[in-house]
Design brief:
201 residues; mainly alpha; Arc Repressor Mutant, subunit A
């Protein structure tokens, strides 16, 4: 799927043209998730073999954790959600005729897990400057601006620009009307430009 960050007009999204380096290596950022999941599988009922799960980790591990982090704004919580999502996949017997459907399943389950976590716990937030201190300054500034958005803008912005989902796909994932998602993306872009312009002053 094409990276819309590379294709979006600069005038439309301001400085929001950055490479997707956040959690780009799932093996690095999960602390070897394939080992964790394989060990966990020994103690749980599961339907998928190791090769299937490792392939899914390679394809979607980074996207799942990036999305969870954008949703929750906490790296530790994002790692927990990502591991839970892949354990759910391990136990699931769902069939996916296309990779697009499998990818949509991962992002839908991730969104559901994030919503459940936000509803069920009083969560502690580390300062975001510490959470993203490993990024180059220019990327850190943009990500900080994205994370400063309200959830209703932040999540669609992440899915559209970082993960390359269409408005229709985002609407299906988040159970929102497509017109609402389009409006939230437009408003989110405006807010991003305002935040980034204020930081430059």
């Amino acid at each position: 799927m094409p990276n819309k960050l590379a294709q979006a007009p600069t005038a439309q999204v301001g400085a929001f043209l950055v490479p997707r380096k956040i959690f780009s290596d799932p093996a690095q950022n999960f602390s070897h998730p394939e080992r964790y999941i394989v060990r966990k599988a020994v103690r749980t009922l599961h339907t998928r073999d190791r090769e299937d799960v490792e392939q899914a980790l390679a394809l979607y591990g980074g996207s799942v954790q990036r999305f969870a982090f954008a949703y929750l704004k906490n790296r530790s919580d994002a790692e927990d959600v990502a591991q839970d999502v892949f354990l759910s996949y391990l136990r699931s017997d769902a069939a996916f005729p296309t990779e697009q459907q499998r990818r949509a399943w991962f992002m839908t389950v991730t969104a559901n897990r994030c919503r459940s976590l936000l509803r069920s716990t009083a969560r502690h937030h580390e300062p975001l400057t510490e959470e993203i201190s490993y990024l180059p300054p220019e990327e850190s500034a943009v990500l900080s601006a994205v994370l400063a958005l309200e959830e209703k803008y932040r999540v669609p912005v992440h899915l559209y620009y970082y993960e390359g989902f269409s408005i229709a796909e985002i609407a299906a994932l988040l159970h929102r009307p497509a017109a609402t998602v389009g409006s939230q993306l437009a408003r989110g872009r405006e807010k991003l430009k305002q935040i980034l312009q204020e930081e430059e002053l």
